[in-house]
Amino acid sequence: MEIEVKKIMKKAPKEPAEYSAEFCETLLRYFCGARETIAYDEEYLPSGEVKRKKPVLFAPEYPTLDRFARQIGVTVSRLLEWKEGHPEFAEACAHAEEAQKSCLIANALNRNYDAGFAKFLLCRKFPGEFSEEAQLPDPGLDIRVTYGKNNNSE
Known about the structure:
Number of helices: 5
Structural class: alpha+beta
Distance between the termini: 94 Å
Radius of gyration: 25 Å
Order of helices and strands: HEEHHHH
Strand content: 5-15%
Helix content: 40-55%
Largest sheet: 2 strands, antiparallel
Shape: flat
């Protein structure tokens, strides 16, 4: 008995001959356009009629440079070359990173993404803004909290 094995492979990305400024808008549309997907969970009566139709929200797919590169048919290394060689594309990439950060935070807060994994990504991708270490307040700062009546006994 022979079994035919089929390889399922995506075509290798085709590198466009030249950079186009249109890629800036395409990049921003991809990173800023992540939206939730709505599907419906349906419950049926024995007769086949719909008894209940409940919407189910699926978190948006986290936008990445890798997925964007595949979408437009290039490699990530080509995107990084464009980022270095074209200031407008570098600016679009900076806006895309901000959109990526907002996507992570919003979806972690809405419990669409696992909060631990969102924290891990934020700490790795944005180390200047997010850290695993607790930040202590300024040691010269004197904060006093009193409850009840004002007690000025000093």
